[in-house]
Every structure is written in C-alpha cells, then in structure tokens.
Amino acid sequence: MNKKIIYGSILMATLLSVACQKNFLNVQTTTPTPSNDPTVAMDLVSGVYSSLIYVDPRGGWNYDTHGISFVAATDIMSDDADKGSYLADQPGVLDLDNFTETAGNSFVAALWNGYYVGIGRVNNALAALAVAKLDTATANRLIAEVRFIRGYYYFNLVRFFGGVPIVITVPNGPKAANSNASYVTRASVTEVYNNVIIPDMQFAMNELPPKAGTSTGRINRGIAEGMLAKVYLYLQNWQMAFSLTQDIINSGQYSLVPDYSTIWRQAGDNNAESIFEIETGGFGGTDAGIPLYSEFQGPRNAGGGWNNPTFPDATGDLGWGFCTPSTSLISAYDSGDLREAASIIFVNPSFAAPTGDTLWDGFVIPKRSSVQALYYNYKAYHSEKLETFYGNRDRKEKNIHLFRFAEVLLINAEAANELGQASTATTDLNQVRTRAGLPNTTAVSQSDIRTAIWNERRVELALEHDRFFDLVRTGRAAQAMTAAGKNFAAGKNELLPIPSVQIALSGGKLTQNPGY
Amino acid sequence: MNKRLRLRHGVVCAAKKALLIMKLSAILLLVGVFKLSAGVGQSSISLKIDKLEISKILGMIEKQSSFRFLYNSRLKDIQQQVSLDVKDQPVEAVLGRIFTGTDLTYKVMENNLIVIVSGKIEKQDIPVTGKVTSDNGEALSGVSVTLKGTTRGTTTDNSGNFSLLVPQNGTLVISYIGYQDQEIAVNNQTVVNVKLEQSSKPLDQVVVVGYGTQRKIDVTGATATVKGTELVKQPVMTPTQAMQGKVAGVQIISSGQPGSQPSVRIRGTGSMLGGVEPLYVVDGVITTDITNINTADIVNVDILKDASSTAIYGARGSNGVIIITTKQGSGKLKLSYNGNVGIQSATNLVKMANAQQYITYVQSSFGPPVQATGYSTDWYSQILRNAVEQNHGITLSGSSEKTNYLFSVDYIDDQGIVIDNDFKRFTLRTNEQFKITNNLKFGFFASYSNGNIQNVNLGSAYNDAYRAAPTVPGLIKGKYGNSSLFQNVGNPILDIKDNNNHTADNRLQGNAFLEYKPWTWLTLRSNIGADWDNAVNRVYTYQFAADTTTFVTPGGNQSNLYSNLTWNAGNSLHWVWDNTATFNKYFNEHDLTILVGTTSEQIFSSYSQADVDGVPPDPSLWYISNGNFALPFLPPSGGGANQTRNSYLARVNYSYMDKYLFTGNFRADGSSTFPANNRWGYFPSFGVGWVVSREGFMQNQHTFDALKLRASWGKSGNDVTGYGTQGYTLTLLENLPYFFGGQATSGSAISQIVDQNLKWETTTESDIAVEFSTIHGKLTGDIEGYTKIVKDALINVLIPSTLGSYNPSGSGGYVLTNAASIQNKGVEVSLNWHDQINSHLSYFVGANITFNQNTVVGLNGGQPYIDGPIGADQPDVTRTDNGHPIGSFYVQKVVGVFQSQADIDNYKDKNGNILEPGTEPGDFKYQYDANGHLDSVFAGSYQPKEYFGVNMGMNYKNFDLSIVLIGSLGGKIYNGKKAFRQSLLDNVESSTADNYWTNSNHSNSEPRANGGDLPASTYFVESGNYVRINNVNIGYTIPAAAIEKTKVISSLRIYISAQNPLTLKAYSGFTPEIQSSSPTSAGIELNAYPSVKTYSIGVNVGF
Question: Which of B497, B491, B496 is nearest to B474 (CA)?
Fold first, then answer.
C-alpha cells in the first residue's frame, strides 16, 4: 500500500510541476534590442542611409525614394526627357510624362509609400538612439545625421505633394491613425517647412562636423548647410540662401572638378565637387546600387536581342530605354557646351552608318537599326568594362549626385542677384560656364541675370532630377511645359495627386490636391 | 445481485470525491483515500472491543491478519455496534460471533478474501477465479467479466486475474476493448482462464483519440483509421501520399518530387495566411513533418477531423490531427524483409510546339524573323528521365512475457524524374516496452533518419523549358545551346547543371514513457518525447561565362561572373512532456473514463548561414573558407527561435449500457507565440452518441447489424501564424547596404507595425453523423455533415502608409491581424462492402466522397486580399473576398474572339462607344459591365467542390489484388506557365500552334498568335477535374506447403504495383495536383513537378 501511494504521488505531482514555473511561457527574445545592444541603434542609422538607395529591393515599383518612380516624377515629367521605351511600356509613366496621371497612379503611390517608410525608419532610429547606451557625442552625431535625412525626405514630399501629414514619432500600433488624426491629416506647406524640414536641417548643420571631419557618405555639415540653402531658395529667403552658400564657398572644402564629363562616372564619385551623394558599392556578393536606376535608363534594343555578331560587346539589352533626353533639352545647350556630349548619348541617326557609336569606355552602341531611340541619358550609364561590376545589371553601382558644388554656386548666384549683388552673381555663374567651355555670361540686368542663372541650372543640372521642381519653384512650369508640347494644367499639375488608396485608408481625413 | 450493485456504487462516490480533491490540487491526499489492500498478519485474531461498528472491527481484523473484506459500506447491519473479547481465535469463529444478531453472512474466497453480504447466499453460487490474457499471452487488466443476463460483474486486476461469485451453471461474458467478446459456460469449474482474440470488426476496433484510445463504437467525434498494411502497398515515399483517397474529408495533394511532403487539407482550407496543414503526432510526439517516417513501421494512421476530436489538441487542432502509431513487437521472434524496385517516368507531359510549328507561330505574331536551324528541341525531354526508385527494409520483432521489441532498418533511393534530382533516406527504428512489475511499464520509441537530397532548380528549369525556342539546340558535344542569346530565356539544362544544391538531414525522434497502474481503474502515465533535427543545405553555383567554353555560340546573359557557395546549417530541438492520469471504471453498465493531464513543450531552433563568391569548382573544396573574400559578400547571418507551450487537458468519456455515449473535452493552452494578454486560450468540446442498434426495439430487426447516431460541437485553435515565434515583437529587416568611406555597412530597419493583440485563429465546428453496418456486416458506412467556422483568421489589413509600415510582398503598409472569418461546410459519405463468396474468393469495394464548400464570410473592413502574382502582365490573379472561396481567381472574362473588324466595331457600350477600339480580328473579346467598364469576374478557386476515393480489391486463392482510385471535381486551375509567356519569341504549346486564330482558322477560343502579354482572364482558368487510378497492386502468396520445405522462410509474397498508371484530367497542364503553401494563391501552375508513374515489383518475406 505504501509503495503505491509513493509511486502514485510522485507521478501525479509531476502533473503540476510545469505549472509552477511561472516564466515558462515568457521566453527570452533571441534578437537584440536597442536597450540591450547599442549596435542595434547604430545599425538602424545605417538602415536609414540605406533607404536612400532603396526601400524595396525589387526596384521602386511599390516603394521608391530614388529609383524609377523618382526618375519618372522628376526628369521624365519635366521637359528634359521623354518617357522612352516603346509606347505601351509602362502607361503609368506615360501618364506622368503627359500629365494625365490620376490618383491611382502606382508610381506616384510608390513615392508616397517610399518616403514615408524612409521617414518611419528615421523615427525608429531616433527612438532607438534615445534609449541606446552610447556616448553623448556619438548619439548626437547619429541623431543629426538621420534628422537631416528626414528633413530631406520631407523636402521631396513637400515638392511632390505640397503639405503632407507630419509624422515624426513612432506610431504605437496599427490603429494609431484612429487615435491620432495628425498621422493622416495634411499639414500646410509652411508647417512642413517650419516644423520639420528647417529644424531637422538646422539641427544637423549645427551638430555635424564638416566634410573633412567624418567618413565619406556620412551626412556632414556641408550637406546640411547646402540643402538648407536650397530650402531657403524655395522659400525665397534670399538672405539665408546667400549666407549659407557663401559659408560653404568660404569653407574651402569644395571646388569644381575640371572635367564635367567625369562627374557621373565612377571616377567622379565623392570628388571635390560632391556635396550630397548616394553611395553605392558591392554588397552581399553582388552590386548594390539603386535598383533599376541605371538599367531603367539604359539604351534599349529595337527588339529581339542584340545578337549582331558585328557588336560582340552588345550582349542583350543594356537597359529598358526610359527617360530619353528630349529635343527641348538638346536645344537648350549652346554650341560648344562640353556638357551636352557628357550628358547625352547620341545614337548616329544614319541607318547606313557602318558601325555604332563608341562610348567613353570603348563600348560600342549598335547602329541605328538595332537601337530604339536616338538619345539616352549618359549620366545614368554605368560601364560594365571599366567600372565596378559584379554582374547584377538591376543594381549597377551608380552613385547619385543629389547636390554638387556647382549648384551651391548657382544658388549663391541667384540669391545674390535677388539681393542686388549682380557682380557676385555673375562671378559664380561664370565659374560654372568656364568649366563647361563657354564664354562669360553677357547678362547685365537683374532680370537677364536671373534668366541666365535659370538657363544655366537647366543645362548644368540636366537629368539630375531638379528641372521640374525648379520650373515650379520659379513659376515657369506651365509656360515651359506648353512649349514642350505637354498638356500641363496650371494650378493642378504643379503637384502630384495624393494616392487615392491612402485617402480611402485615412477615412477621408487626407485631402486631395486641387484638380485631381 | 442488488447487493453487488450497491457495493460498486460506493466506489463511484469515492471516485467523485477524488475528482473534487483533484480540483483542489491536493494530489497527495487522493491516493490515501482509498483503502483496498491489507498487510499480512496472523491468521488468528485477538481483539477486545467495547461497542464498535462492525465495519471498524473488520478493519482491525484486516490489520491483524492477511484477510481482506469486501462489502458495501452502506449495509445497515455493518454499522451495528457490537462488543467483542476474543483471544487467538480463527477468523471464522470471530466473524460468527460478530454477525450474530445481524443478517450478514460471509464467504471465504481465494487469497483470503472474505465477501460479506446481507441475507443468505444463494446455494448454487460458487466462486470462480481466472486469468485473462491476450492472444500473445500478455495478461490483460481491466477486462470486464460479467454474468450473462445480469449486471453482476467485475474487472480483472493488473495481473489479469478476476474472481466472481456465479451460479454453477451460469455463463461468463468476457469483453475488452479491441477484442472479440467471449462467452464461457461455468459448468462447475472454479478456475476459468480466458484467452481473448483481437477483434476485426470495424466498430469494435480501437482507435487512437489523442492521449488515449477508444473503441470505435464509443467514439462520438469524426475520426478515421487507415491501416499500415494498406499504406505499404504503394511504392511512395511518404505515408501521407499513400493515404490519398482513403478517408472522406481528407484531401491530399502530392507531387512526385522526391522527399516532398504532400499538402493535406482536412475538411477544407481553414486559414488564409496562417498554417493550413494538420498537426502530426507520431507515437505521442507532436511534429509537422513526417518525411522521416518509414511507412513499413506504421501500424495505423488515425485521423481526427472534427473539433470534438481535435479539441484535445487545443490551439494546435483546428486543421485536423493525424496520429501515427508505429508497430510493437508481439509473439515469437519474427524477421521480415520488404523490398521493392520500380521504374518512374513522367506522365501527362505537355507537348510543346516543334521547330516548324514554332517558326510559323512566331511569324504569325509579327515577331522578329526566325530561321530554321535544323534543330527541333523538346526541352522537357532534355531535363526529364526515367528513374529508378527502390526501397529495402528489414524488421525484427517479437515479445516475451516482460518485454516486447521491434527493430527496423530501411533504405530508400528515389532518383526522381528530373535529371540530377535524388532523394536517399536511411532510417532506423527501435520500439521497446518493458513490464517492470505487473503494474509498472516502461517503454521507448526511437527513430533515426538520415536524408540526402539532391535538389534541382525547378523554378527556372521548368519555366525556361516551357518558353525556350525549339530551334535552339539543348546540348551539343558538351556545349549548351544559347537560348538566352536568342530570346533572353536560360537554357533549361544549364539551369539545372549550373548549380549543385544538396541537403543533408539528420533527425532523431523518439519518446519514452513510464506507465503506472496502481489499481486497474487508474493509469498514470508520464511521456517525454523529443524531436531533434540537424540539416545542412549547401548550394554551389558554378562560374561560367557566356562564351564558347560553355555555349555553342557566345553571348546572351546566362552566366555567372563568380562561383558562389551558400552554406546553411540549421538545428532544432523540440521536446514535449505529457503527464496524464486516466480513471476508468465500469460499473453496472456505466462506463466512465476520465483523463486529466498537463503537457508542456519547447521548440528551440537556430541556424547560421554564410555565403561567399569565388570558391573553386572541385567539390572537395566547397567550404566557406575557400572563397575569395576580396569580392563583396553577404555578411554571415544566423538566428534562433525559442517557443514554449503549456497546456492543461481533461476529457470525460461516458457510456451507459454501451448505448448512450458522451464525450467532453477541455483544454487550456498557453503559448509564448502570443503577447501575454492573449497567451491563454480555452477549447471546450462535447460529443454525444446513440447506438440505436443496441436498443430493445432494434433486437428483432435484421436490417442493421449496427446503427449509431452521433453529434458533436467543439472549439479548436490554430497558433501557426506564419509570423515567427513571437509575432507581436518587432523584427529587424537586416542586411541593408550602405557605404561609408567606401566600406560596405550592413544596416537594419524597423519597417513594420505589429498588432500587439495578435491571437490564435479559433475554429468552431459542429458535426452530425450516422454510422451503420448492414447485410450481415457486409456493408458498413457513415454519412456525416459538418460546419466549420474559423473566426479571428489572420489577414493583412492595409493601413495608411504614413505609419511607415513596409510590406515586402506588395505595395502600401499592411499589418497582420485577426480580422477574417472563413466557413467550411460539407458532407462526407463513406461506404464499404466486403464479401466472402467462398473459401477461395473474397472481395471488397469501398468508396468515399466529400462535398465541401469554402466561403469567406467576413473580412475586416471588406478589404479583399489580393494575391497570385504571375508576372509583370498579370500582377495578381486571385482575390479572397466575402462570399467566395479563399484564393478565388478574379480575372477578366473572355466572351469570345473578334472574328472581323466589323465584329470589333459592333462591340459597343450603351452609349455607342466601341469598347475595344485598339484590337484586331483574332483578339479576345472581354466582358464589359453596363457602364462600359472592363469587368472582372470570380472564376472559381482551386478548392474542389467534391473529391472522392474508391478502394477495391479481391483475394482469390493465393492471389490478391487491390486498386485505389481518386478524383476531384469542381476545382479550377490557373495555367500560370501559359500566362507567364512574355515575349514574341517564347514557345507555345503544340495545341496552341495548331489551333490559334488565323484568317483561315476562325477559332472562337484561341486568340491570334501573340507575344504572351495577355491580361489575366478566364482563358487561363481551366477545370481541375480529374480521376486517377492511383495504385494497382497484384500479389501472389507462395502456398505455405511450398515454402515449408525451405525451413528458413515462413511466408513469402511477391507483388507488382503500378502507381498512377492512368489519369483522366480536364486540365491541359502537367498535373491537376498543384502544391502551394499559400492558400490565397493556390492552384496556379507555374512550375509544377510533372506527375510521375511508377511500375515496381516487390517482395515481402517472413523468416
């Protein structure tokens, strides 16, 4: 009897043994968190930088910061370039080119989604930095870096869409938009500038070391100062735009490189002229450039594959042939402007020509009969022969020059001109022209100088994603687009439509732009 | 007789009391309450007592002596107080004195048991004792022994012994679960030893119900059993595949791919984004993958279908449970060998256009000029082959009084029909049980499997084989035809040959239990199971350039600039510890079983992966350290997961007179997968049954041998969220590149919003059924109806993008949350006929059919879930929406082909606008709505409306034959490979090349020749109906007389088997069985493994 009781008791007691371990279900997380591992916060900062290259590795169809949707809504939408490829390819891009886009346009949605995911990464990084055990100096530097990128993303958003919802904290769950309407309610353009863009950029400018004091690729004082100057240019705060650009000029950290054509080659990466540049490189066994950026704009064959044995280099398409430079852009160059041939790949228009054109790296573009368009974007070209290439054409290592010293000079010139300092303006302008192989400007009056600067901006910064914004900023969009034969509606097409899905998801709190 | 009854009643009270105490968790007290045994004392008694209850005096006698008393404590006279003063008296004298003045009498039985009853014992009653054993000599405890025609009875003890007072001419009825009842006339014998034979009647058979067994007739839920002997007839590599068509309500979709586990849907698809596969339980060890199990080791597979059966598995049960029981040794030492060898080949291949057809088609579609090359390559034949499969197994088993044992070794080699594909598996199993004492048993089950899989890159190879031009040669003198130069499609042979993808898997699975039966009515069992898996996947991609070293002609973009090696090592350990107590008591026609228990489990897994370029091609150098680290490489990755579950379970099975049945289940589950506030779930269920055929009014009818009605209701859950082990925590998106100072940096991001209230999906299921056996047991069947509603099903809900959520598989921010409801409604019918015509000939035919209707009944905010990507032209072809099955195809409707320009011009909307102005004759005419907008329609889903199986066979003398037929009706398949055709130079199917619309061939179903860039439409939706002869097996057993002479072999059967010899299908693609892990994009054929037919010969030898 005793034995049975003992055995039975032991066995039965085990029934409840596990229940006694109260923490059995509270398993420890197997991944580090910002509070137990400071490298998490630092990795999140790198992740914010990475969003400059891409948010979605599949290439800007659904989320985009600087990929195909960005190219479509900047260069293709402007009078600098046409959609390219064959007519039926990507009707959504054609709609942007022709200003017939609707609120359902997927490329527009990709920009909205991409920038807000990037902003979300910044907000999460900031939240992590707030709890990470890092020394104050490092933490402050990282906070300043990511805040600059947030300010820059809002600057793009406000230029694309006008006033947008200001999200500068991490939403506390999927229903955050129900409890906090500001997540889905548009702030005014002024509020976006005053409450996010300027404070973020100003903070970055104050906290960050100059270019020489930090690694290449990291946000530095010069980047923040230059971009803030550009912001003030948009706000027509000429004094601030002037003094900030003058500070950069006086810093002696930047200069124009002698050969304009090298700027967009790998040799020009992070050159003396570079201020803000998206860095690319080899990663994960292959190339890690902006998905499709180079390929999207690469010369396209006329169909069937480039299998002409005369051109052994021409193995398959170089690209999809989008964003072809427009005749309007080509006619904007003065004769003798070195920048024309550096910016545009010209295909010999003669069907009789025995061979195609040779590019700077020796690559031979097939002759006219095999190529779809006459002009392609040279600035997006990446050499597979002479530049780093690990075999991934979708992700070619093409650094994007978002801000160059030449633009600092042109902003300085424009601001000086508006402040009545014509000689400073023409000095700046002539520096840019001289490098381009052009004589000094002949403009004298404030108005002529203004026009000269604007024209200079177009050709100096051609296909560098600035033209459309510049036209809108200066009030010339309707006139220029009409001149280019586009169906531009003034008062509507200055801004993109707010994506209709997002309006629906906000329960109607998000309002549409006029005309859409 | 009545006295006996009351005596049993006393025990029930005690049991009830015990239950109460259980509730109070005072476990230790519980055991002390019962007193049934006594110590050994002298045989003479000395007592001096002044006024004490007789019962207490008896207790004192027990303490002094070896006598035990059996009586009903409620007898009035036993509570009388008497005085006593005896010294060294025999017990009979003492009892005589105590009982003076009462109506109590007694009888001394064997083993010093004294039975005390009220009134006179009937004269003719004699004590009968005996022992009940099974056919292999094992003592059976808990066997019911009753006097026929009465309710008088007892049960056997742990040693199988019983004793009972019965009339000299009475008849004993001995019955036990899973054994045939036996009746034995007493005829004045005082010792009756009984050997019970196992029952073969379906309703008497024992079924496994999870943490226990039950007689089939007593089960109130929907369960089914498939015998291992049926499964081994099919030369397939996983037992699940051999179950196709065997059980109503169970749909199995298998592919011929070596080493793959078929998809199983029990009673429809119960989730959209969560897990949809059933839970597997192998000898008590919970698992999700049974590709390590040797089919020959299986004795039975039990399938639990309704919530009343699966609720005992709580949060794991809602997709059904498949319980696998492996063999135990029994009887004398047996050695057997089973082996088969077969030839496999692809069947139902899609015929592609030959070079001439291709050239003509391309020219008709205004593609670039294509020249004949003298080649007409059939790409599928280039990558497929006839393959050999073989399987050899040896089993050694047996039992002795104290142990039973089984040891098996098995080796499988399945080459697969695709070049380079191969699956080899070696398994070892040992199952042992030891009877330590009569009431203490220990056992363990252990299996080790070693799998080696040579995987092939089917995704690219099949897709490319469909598209590659036949004018390009496959392989000439070791050099590949350059299809990518010609049309930007990789050479399919090279797709396979350019990499070596190998997985080595070692898995150890087993459990050990200790079972203690202090009394016949109580079983305490502790079971610990473990499943350890270690897998290494190594993928080597060769370096090659688009030059003449590799290709016949240089160029194109099929090349690898650098070789690459990816090495992924994973490890997981899963342990489960179950502790159960089972009370079983049979009293006066009341049969009560109560199970209570706890389980806890933990799954710990980890993996690490490294990846490097520039590893030399010599396989002996395929290690990460041999790579070229000057080239960019992905940082090594790795991680771990830790998951725990803790559960409490209880079940009551009660039957009265074997006619009225009740089952109640309750399980509480805690899972670390969910946030603390949603961690616990509660899963109740109930089932009732009525065995009508046992009612008095049924005794004189001859229609039904057995008739049973049952109904059940219950809740079960699904905690497989497809969202990691801690779905509510944020996970980092890692390996995000950026470059500082020219150095690559790996960043990470939090780009998701998580639902902090995530919880499991809950299924509520009702089930009603009738089971019967008629025509003298020749026809048995059951008809069953069910409704299964899944609430809180996981679905991705769109949220505003401003919240910063990134959805890697679509556009816009999604959050995964419990916001959908799904309904499955169905009817299952199973009928089985078997008949023995004479001593030489018997035959059977069984058929089962399931009608199931799957409907999404609720979606959060009505947002349909869009899925099913095909390619750039068809980004999504399915839509999961209210009122339609999960993953319904949602596409434009083709209403015909424009035959002429006039036809196009006349196709107008109500305002007279031409609807398709840009088209040409030969293009599709699509359906438009009343407003002139292009209409999309729901065009069915992959889920069948009906599926069925027919099993038949016969035995004639020494020959046996069995045939399994399966089929499915009402499902649709999306011909994704056809839809993926994307350029003017892509090949077409031969039937398309023959039938496309031309000016002279005015087809109304096939469009004119085109480059494949067609929108998603009903053109690509095809019927999934099919019927297949799944298996034919013909065997011959060598007559015993013939093999006796050998003195070595005791039995020998040889057989030939044909697996999948014939499929009749409506679908034009490779197979109507499309495996997909995602219910919302099921049934899209992009690169399905073609169906495989296998002809094999085999032998079963017993030594």
Answer: B491
Is residue B955 classed as helix, strand or coil in its secondary structure?
strand
- ipTM score of complex: 0.94
Calculate how close chain A gets to B523, using CA atoms only, in Å: 9
User: Chain B residue with minimal CA distance to A26?
Assistant: B672
Please answer yes or no on whether B748 and A117 come within 8 Å at the CB atom. Answer: no
Q: Which helix (H) or strand (E) is B835 found in, with range?
A: strand B813-836
Question: Taking a C-beta distance cutoff of 8 angstroms, is the pair B490, B558 a contact?
Answer: yes
CB contact (8 A) between residue B736 and residue A47? yes
Q: Is B1006 helix (H, G, I), strand (E, B) or coil?
A: coil
Residue to mutate among B739, B745, B816, B1010, with most A CBs inside 10 A, is B739
Place of tokens 């998701």: B752
Cα–Cα dist B1083/A35, whole Å: 46
The C-alpha atoms of residue A298 and residue A268 are separated, in whole angstroms, by 19
pLDDT per residue as tens digits for the range A183-198:
999 999 999 999 999 9
Q: Which helix (H) or strand (E) holds A459?
A: helix A446-460
B817, exposed or middle or buried, with CB in 10 Å at 0-12, 13-18, 19+? Answer: buried
Q: Could you tell me which residues are beta bridge partners of residue B287? A: B280
d(CA B1097, CA B1058): 9
Q: Which of B31, B646, B799 sits opposite A25 (nearest CB)?
A: B646
pLDDT at A331 > cutoff 80: yes
- Give CA–CA dist A194/A180, Å, rounded: 21
Residue pair A233/B757 in contact (Cβ under 8 Å)? The answer is no
For residues B263 and B289, the answer to whether their CB atoms sit within 8 Å is no
Q: Is A13 on the interface with B (CB under 8 A)?
A: yes
| Among candidates B28, B740, B808 on the partner chain, residue whose Cβ is nearest the Cβ of A217 | B740
Tell me if residue A357 falls in helix, strand or coil.
coil
Residue of B nearest to A52 (CA): B738
* pLDDT score at B725: 55
Q: Do A505 and B800 touch (CB under 8 A)?
A: yes
Beta strands in B837-957, from DSSP E residues, in sequence order? 841-859, 865-867, 878-880, 888-892, 894-897, 924-926, 936-938, 946-956
Nearest beta carbon to residue B557 from set A52, A113, A316:
A316
pLDDT tens readout for residues B69-81 = 877 766 777 888 8
Contact B815 A5 (CB under 8 A): no
Q: Which residues of A touch B739 (CB under 8 A)?
A: 217, 279-281, 283
Task: Compute how many other C-beta atoms are within 10 angstroms of the C-beta atom of residue B698.
Answer: 15
Instruction: Return the CA Rg of chain B.
Output: 35
Asked if residues A355 and A346 have their Cβ atoms less than 8 Å apart, the reply is no
A460 in contact with B, Cβ within 8 Å = no
Across the range A369-379, mean pLDDT stands at 88
CA distance A134 to A34: 10
Among partner residues A12, A53, A120, which is closest to B737 by beta-carbon distance? A53
The Cα–Cα gap between A473 and A480 comes to 13
Amino acid at B684: P
* Mean confidence (pLDDT) of chain A: 91
Backbone torsion region of residue B556, taken as left when φ is above 0, otherwise alpha when ψ lies between -120 and 50, otherwise beta: left
Measured distance CA(B728)–CA(B725) in Å, rounded: 9
CB B512 within 8 A of CB B531: no
Closest to A304 (Cβ–Cβ): which among B35, B368, B580? B368
pTM of the model: 0.80
Strands A375-377 and A281-283: unpaired
Residues in chain B where the model's pLDDT stays below 70: 1-43, 73-74, 110, 119-124, 151, 200-204, 722-730, 810-811, 861-862
